[in-house]
Amino acid sequence: MKQNKIQTCLVFTSMLTILFLGSCQDKLLQTYEVNNPVYMSYEALRSAVKDTAPEEISQPGKIYLYGDYILVNEVREGIHVVNNTDPSNPEVISFIKIPGNIDMAIKHNILYADSYVDLVAIDISDLNDIREVARFEDLFSWSLPPYEAGTRVGMVDEAEGVVIDWKVEEVTEELDWEDQGLMYPTRMWESTMRMDMVSFASANSTGGGSVTGTGGSMARFIIYEDILYVIDQSNLHMFDINNELNPISAGSTQIGWNIETVFIAREHLFIGSMTGMYIYSLYDPVNPDYVSTYWHVTSCDPVVVEGNYAYITLRTGNICETDVNQLEIVDIHKLASPIKIKSYPMHNPHGLGIDQGILFICDGDAGLKVYDASDPLNLNANQLAHFTEINTFDVIPIETHLIMIGEDGLYQYDYSDVKDINLLSMIPIVAD
Question: In the sheet that 303-306 helps form, which strands lie side by side, from edge to edge?
Fold first, then answer.
């Protein structure tokens, strides 16, 4: 009995000590590192477009072919201009600074490009004297640049401008005693959730006398007749560019969520999303008419079309949710009822292209794969070539000439003889 009384006294004394200390120290200091936003003001953004001396390609994105020029996006920085008069000896000749740029399209020497939240039109008829001729402000969803997963992100104020980078800083903050178990202060949870939401926001023939150019399968910009089509996370925007120097908004229509790519074939738009392929008729180019949807598992998804078949690559990635890496071939004889006829496992397929039945697939770090697609049900039996030891992103095949962008270079191939595809040139990527 005496021992029990002693234990009771000890417990009571411990409780008093905890209560006493809690009353004396109701705050907890926590020190941590945080990514705080680095802003570019809207005023600076809207006066930043200019032509500069050529720079080395270090973080390539989308590619675009226009006549004797290849344009290579430097992610969120601008566009490298490559003189490709001789594909065996291409030369980077200039850099067009466009902050926040990811996509592009060209008609009659007018370059249309995104610049964070804006769409800009730039006259490139004289590459030594480019001129911004039009700008549509606040067209695109406000977005944030990439950050390292698992790191904390500070408060973001859209009124300050666009976020162009992050600066790691040490922060010491007082937390209420009852909040000590939180991983982040409350304000950190709010900004992290906001960032997750906004981070998702984000074929015509060509030749020496091109009117328009040709983009790869990852494109979000594409031109048909006198209309420029631009997709964002959920909408299709249209611009009348009959007068290239004075583009006019022709309206927009909501497609769905997580829209990623756009392709034109058979007078129809084929829009790739993380959940499916949307088909819209362009019989009236200013008023695309919904035809059908082909649904697939949630996955990153570009699409190309030739004849009666659509080719879709599905892959895992930064924002792709399922563990699926494959090529799907969809029968579109009847555009109103697309049907999958075959799927093929891949390593991690990204962009793809098709020309006269020759299918090119950028299978990530598994390299470039080339197939005779004349028999869609037996694709594996008809592989023509496999270029390994390169990390591939997207391709543009056109008239026996293939342009491919990868992690380590801008490649060009001659496939006039599909049994003997030859490398013409490679401009190396110089890592930061």
Answer: 303-306, 309-314, 326-331, 339-345
Supply the pTM of this predicted model: 0.85
Least confident of 31-40, 54-63, 281-290, 395-404: 31-40
For 431, the 3-state DSSP assignment is coil
Per-position b or e across 45-70, b if 16+ CB within 10 A of its CB: bbebbebeeeeebeebbbbbbbbbbb
Q: Cβ distance 167 to 36 under 8 Å?
A: yes
d(CA 214, CA 355): 13
205 pLDDT exceeds 50?
no
Type of residue numbered 308: N
Q: E strands of 285-408, at which residues?
A: 289-295, 303-306, 309-314, 326-331, 339-345, 352-355, 358-362, 368-372, 383-387, 392-398, 401-406
Nearest to 329 by CA among 348, 354, 347: 354
Helix (H) / strand (E) element for 80: namely strand 78-83
Give the integer Cα–Cα distance in Å for 201 and 140.
8
Would you say residue 198 has pLDDT above 50? no
Task: Say if residues 360 and 369 touch (Cβ distance below 8 Å).
Answer: yes
Query: How is residue 242 written in tokens?
Result: 């009959």
Predicted confidence (pLDDT) per residue in 136-191, tens digit: 999 998 888 887 767 788 889 999 999 999 998 887 877 665 554 444 433 333 33
